[in-house]
Specification:
about 475 residues; alpha/beta; Rossmann fold; Hect, E3 ligase catalytic domain fold; 3 domains; three-stranded mixed sheet; 18 helices; about 50% helix; DNA binding; Zn_ribbon_recom_dom
Length: about 475
């Protein structure tokens, strides 16, 4: 329905009407009915001034950004309005704070406000009191509804019920997720490409799109979609609800203490160890995209042994016999480092020899730094898990105090926290590490990197190298240090 509005030029009576599409279908609160009731009220009061209509068709009262409400406020601020009428309070706003804020504006400009259904007028003290009481009661009822909805959602989550659209790799049957194998295999391939092949979000999206594999929405894959897949805890069997605040137009991630987390509630596509390794990888500082696609084997990995700056590629030699060199960027761009330049082909050969030596010497006794690094990372992961579990338990205590969950749910959360702390106290750091697994994983990745250097193009070989190598340092001539990454 389209409405024509008169220009407000002098002090007038404003009639504000609003309806949302679902509201009209459910309750029959039509715009025409509101207008007729307000005009009849004006006639009954003996007001001869022709009222001005402000009509918001299809707008929710939860949002204050409405075209005709904004136009009404502008007219109020210009001093063109003397009185505002609505059929009910919720036509103006369903939120008490917003309602009181609007009435404060009206009073600031000497504009009275009346709701004809609730029979009050802000020109009188009793009208203002009635307004605040009615608004407070309405706000209380909405909060109770929100709490009941939250309680029902928590119960559903604890029962393993999926509350939204199923993620890629699953189908929804009777509100429960079941694995859809054709998509689940794609999920496993994506995790493998990221973790074991060193391919980034963009590269993974490109591979899926080139293969003609569509997303859940039957669209091409984006970087964001790949990242969401790699960080979705549902794939390891964990149901997480209430992560995102949807009460505002911009969706923000809530503090993890507010999340509803239920472990081992869903069918597993990615084992927990692999999922945790991927999370560790996504939280690390990534190599710059330009360095990842560099046609030089150690671009983005090589560091100066004197100042720690990155080493970039350059060229040296005569006009007819030029060759690649790695140069310290601080020396090249600032002159603050005295490091010399190194022939790139020689450095890359030293690197290959160093990788081979590492492969030959890996063992629990002969390679203790490997275990030390893995142990340190494991301790950090355990500490983070305990912090998260404590925050989650604190949130459950608050929920139990508010009557949102049962004592049984609170006790289960407490037992999980106590078990996690007990395991961390009883086991030594080394015993928590699967040493044979770490050794096998490192050997396999080094071997894959060595094979890739001889067979694959440089960008693809570099992708495999960076799954096991964190950085490469040249302290001096023919001396090279390779720092491994243990995920």
């Amino acid at each position: 329905m389209k409405h024509e509005f008169e220009q407000v030029n002098e002090k007038s009576i404003a009639l504000y009407c609003r309806v949302s599409t679902d509201e009209q279908a459910r309750e029959g609160v039509s715009l025409d009915e509101q207008q007729e009731r307000l005009k009849a009220y004006c006639r009954a009061m003996g007001w001869s001034t022709e009222p001005i209509l402000f009509v918001d068709d299809g707008y929710s009262a939860k949002n204050m950004d409405r075209p005709q409400l904004n136009r009404l406020l502008q007219a109020v601020e210009k001093g063109s309005i003397s009185r505002i009428l609505v059929t009910k309070l919720d036509r103006l706003s369903r939120r008490l704070l917003d309602l009181l804020k609007l009435i404060d504006v009206f009073q600031e400009y000497d504009v009275s406000f009346a709701s004809i259904s609730e029979s009050f007028d802000t020109n009188t003290p009793s009208g203002r009191l009635t307004l605040q009481v009615l608004g407070a009661v309405a706000e209380f009822e909405r909060e109770r509804i929100r709490e009941r909805v939250f309680e029902n959602m928590v119960h559903a989550a604890n029962q393993g019920k999926w509350l939204t659209q199923s993620p890629y790799g699953y189908r929804l049957e009777n509100k429960e997720l079941v694995i859809y194998e054709p998509e689940a295999q794609i999920v496993r391939d994506v995790y493998d490409m990221y973790l074991n092949q060193g391919i980034g979000y963009r590269g993974i999206a490109r591979k899926l799109n080139d293969a003609g594999i569509l997303s859940k929405q039957k669209k091409e894959w984006s970087l964001r979609a790949i990242k969401l897949m790699l960080t979705n805890p549902a794939y390891k069997g964990t149901l997480v609800w209430n992560r995102v605040d949807t009460s505002k137009s911009k969706r923000n991630l809530k503090d993890n203490s507010e999340w509803v987390v239920v472990d081992d509630a869903l069918p597993v596509i990615i084992d927990k160890k692999t999922w945790e390794r991927v999370q560790h990888q996504t939280n690390k500082k990534q190599m710059a995209p330009r360095a990842q696609t560099s046609p030089h084997l150690l671009g983005g990995l090589l560091k100066c042994g004197k100042c720690g700056s990155g080493m970039s590629i350059g060229w040296s030699g005569s006009k007819n016999k030029r060759y690649r060199v790695y140069v310290c960027s601080a020396h090249k761009n600032k002159g603050t480092c005295t490091s010399k330049q190194y022939r790139a082909d020689e450095v890359e050969e030293w690197f290959k020899e160093g990788l081979q030596q590492l492969l030959n010497m890996i063992g629990y006794q002969s390679f203790p730094q490997l275990i030390q690094k893995a142990t340190q990372q494991n301790e950090e992961n355990v500490e983070q898990k305990i912090r998260t579990a404590k925050n989650r338990y604190k949130r459950k205590v608050e929920a139990y105090t508010a009557g949102l969950i049962e004592l049984e749910d609170l006790n289960e959360e407490k037992q999980r926290l106590e078990k996690l702390i007990e395991e961390a106290d009883q086991k030594s750091s080394v015993s928590q590490i699967d040493i044979s697994y770490v050794e096998k994983m490192v050997k396999e990745k080094i071997k894959n990197a060595l094979d890739a250097i001889d067979i694959l193009p440089v960008p693809e070989a570099k992708s495999l190298i960076k799954t096991i190598v964190e950085k490469v340092i040249i302290p001096e001539e023919k001396d090279i240090e390779i720092v491994l990454r243990i995920d």
